[in-house]
Amino acid sequence: MVTFDMIFMDINMPVMDGYTASIKIREKKEYDAIPIIALSALTSSDEIAKMFASGMNGYMAKPLEKEKLYTVFSMFIQNPPHKKKTTQEDEETQSIRLDGLNITLGISKSSSSEVFYKEILSEFKDAYGDTDKVFHKLLEDYRYEQLRILCIDIKGLTGSIGAEKLHNIVTDMLQKLSLKKYDYLPELIIQYTKELKLINNSINKYLEQ
């Protein structure tokens, strides 16, 4: 069987659009874990919610920027081995304290590059900064499978950027979804919304430094 590391999905295609194609891909369990990244000029909140609901993991706005492509690779494909940091670099990194973000952990997972880490944070905020609204919508529509897929994506990404509390909340959501304890989800989404707002503010502060 042919294996793939990632799928780039155009939204507007002849015969079958990207949403339908993604849904059909997700219907096959062997392709459940493959990241699907949308390529589209349509980046309204409704369009983004539709992307996630169809099983996509993220999106890249057209026209495509090479730097953002590298960021997507880092976010969804395992990072190469990290170079050993010097004691001075560790001390400088540990001195940065921002609510909700473990900067040291995030940089270590970004090939030990603060520049690369900042790119990933920027991409995370652009692509996932309003996922609380997406969670609310999916829950209202009882689309638990789409909610589960999005939680899997967020779990991996929050671990990569050092958003430890947000990571734990999403992990709890995944557990409740797997046990079909849906009554717990509204409260967890409220917690997620509060923590995501904190993360977004911290990312803004860090990127301004």
Descriptive account of the structure:
Helices cover 60% and strands 6% of the residues. By secondary structure, the protein is mainly α. The protein has 2 domains: 1-64, Rossmann fold, CATH 3.40.50; 87-209, Four Helix Bundle (Hemerythrin (Met), subunit A) (Up-down Bundle), CATH 1.20.120. Strands 1-2-3 form a 3-stranded parallel sheet, sandwiched between helices. Strand 2, helix 2 and strand 3 (58-61) form a beta-alpha-beta unit. The radius of gyration is 17 Å and the shape is globular. Mean pLDDT is 83; it is low at 79-95.
Q: Please identify, by name, the CATH architecture of the largest domain.
A: Up-down Bundle
What is the third-level CATH name, the topology of the largest domain? Answer: Four Helix Bundle (Hemerythrin (Met), subunit A)
Radius of gyration: 17 Å
Q: What is the number of domains?
A: 2
Given helix and strand content, the structural type is mainly alpha
Number of helices: 10
Beta-sheet strand percentage?
5-15%
Write the element-wise H/E pattern from the N-terminal end onward: EHEHEHHHHHHHH
Strand arrangement, major sheet: 1-2-3
Mean pLDDT: 83
What's the β-strand tally?
Answer: 3
Helix content: 55-70%
Measure the end-to-end span: 47 Å
The profile of the biggest β sheet is: 3 strands, parallel
Silhouette: globular
Output the CATH class name of the largest domain.
Mainly Alpha
